[in-house]
Amino acid sequence: MKLFRALIGVSVLSVSMIACGSGDETNTSTEAPTSEAPSSEAPSTEAPTAGVLNVPADYATIQEAVDAAAEGDLILIAPGTYNEAVQVTTNNIVIRGVDRNTVIMDGNFELDNGFRVVGASGVAIENMTAMNYTKNGFFWTGSTGYRGSYLTAWRNGDYGIYAFDSVGGLLENSYAAGSPDAGFYIGQCYPCDAVIRNVIAEHNGLGYSGTNSGGNLVIVNSVFRNNRAGIVPNSGSYELCYPQRKTTIVGNLVYSNNQPDTPAIDVALLAMGNGILSAGGVQNIIERNRVWNHNKTGIGLVPFLEEDANDAIPSKDAWGTDCATQKLQAPVVPDGPLLWDSQDTEVRGNVLEDNRRADIAVGSAGTNLWELGNCFEGNTFTTSAPLELETLAPCGSPLSETAGDWLAGDLNVITWLVDAETAPPSVDWKTANLPEMPQLEGMPDAATAPAVPASATPPTIDLAAITVPDKMD
Amino acid sequence: MTTPIRRATSALLVGSVFVVLATACAADPTNVREAEHDRSSMPVDPAAVMGAPDRPIAGPQGAVGQFVVECPYSHALPDDPIVYPGEPGASHMHVFFGNTGADANSTLQSLLLDGTTCEQALDTASYWAPALYHDDVMLIPEKSVAYYRAGLDVDPTKVVAFPAGMAMIAGEPMAVEPQPTSVVAWSCGNGAMRWETPPSCPSGRGLRLDVTFPDCWDGEHLDVPGHREHMRYSSTGECPSTHPVHVPQLIFSVAYSFSGDPTGLKLASGGVLSGHADFVNSWDQDKLEDEVTFCLHRDVVCGVTSGRVSG
Question: Which residues of chain B are under the pLDDT cut of 70?
């Protein structure tokens, strides 16, 4: 375990260094460029005298402090274990632990969410740990503007860090392990206007999952390893805002996502052994990631079969419809199953090795691959499905049936349905083997840094400046 | 005797519901045993008295505020704590979810002390439905999903929590004709299609029985003889003046791993048309009220069904 802990230490350092390469700031409160401008939204950011509510010195519980807080206030939590499930409904407050590794929210396998931000906007949660919750460690729903920084989510029953039906988000410098669904999740939003950066997800069913999310949704400079599957955006009519579209995945380390002893939802069993897997997503961009050691694909674009449908698949001309508009449209329940094809996705400049079914791959369940519009260019790889994929599907020009043999080395993705049934079964999240909880770098100057509520405009990421990250170990 | 709402949310409720659920005080019109004796005075189709939702409630989750509780199967007993209190073995076979101790002798007091199978540990309510048999072999359900929402087109800020100890039944156990699919339906997995009889479901997206409970309460009775008259379904977003209190609309879904040919399926209450379900509110009342306030009043999606297999 010591070795592991040392590795974590190293890995966090290198992740932080990556971050420094794409931006000069080191402090969350100055990183979001918009946080200084919209003073009308968060007047307290310019007034360091804004209220500070100390737990437990001023308020015995976090919930009491949250309930007493006014917009712009900072709730500062002292080291200790807090057996609370905190509801947040006040806009523009900041909830911060003084020490990431010793301010611990513990659900004791009975409480549902460490924090649940319910329809409140601008709520930032910083610098603490949440574990043993039956649902989620940190959860925003129905929020406009949300931020999670320096958070550790460990052994929670659904998701680690979870944003649903929320827009304008930033999840950064955080860690999630031991969830049967995803460590990190952003779902049901378009456009999402959200950034995930400098996070680590391991030993989850899925490292990242995002159902029906996208539109200025950026996942960068992060590590997804030792999950059942790594980064898995998907479409489905069981929730709103389909299809999943326009997620940008750049500069991540994605490796060894074949972990057989994690808790796992059904989709995690289906996706097991893949690094970056688009399951029915469209218009995604996957660039300059380093992806290795997977039993199936390094980067795979595959269909998502939805046998219990709730609505018809939107036609391509409806892909621009925003989520709010789509919510008002009455669903049309189809008679049969849906097949969400991955389409119009660009896979460029990734470095892949030892992905044992194929380093890069595209599959369908009957649709001609050249009609899907996915392209592959400038990747460093050895194997592909179908064979000669970069020759068949170059970026920048329409794909052609006559470009070559599209069937040779077919991914045969239908067999994955069978594989899922024989995959190592889900392990109870309450007792699954997990790495020792890492001691991770906390927020600088947590005790004194001013409160900066979450901005609804996430930082602009200089994607062009991101290079393929080096391996850490 | 009537039970004002306020009493139902106070410490007094434990005592009052104890009466409702278990004692045999013959003078008490809310006594559920007397309710059974009153069966002859019930309408031919008691379910029809309550009305039905304006349309089946199905489709993608995430459009309206809701909270969701998944509860794995707990146990099966030929008991019915609402219809046959104090009479173990008097009922057809039921499958129970949530509260782990629910049986013919349950009281609100006992239910509040029991454990739960629900992943929401504060949901110690009891949910039950007739057991489903395939070629006379009882099928063990995988889990249940309880969806709590405002009724169709109902202003969610009007909804108040069920009072502690409230008991209700949805669907008609005696039905031999199809019931409205807006009240009782069969479906596959999380799909939106609704059938009057069990469909052939694909493997992995197993058969479900979906029962939608009434969402209007008379504001007085935790239960009544016949177990119907205190509840109504809203229509066009309104509750009738006789049942003016909007409560959450509970959609209770029993999920089986059974898929494929539905021939040979039957419910313990009769054929596959006799679908119904029962609910006794023995939630941690503070938590239930919180969920109504945070999720329904604010019209926020506090959760969706998970793909969690188990554990």
Answer: 1-47, 307-311
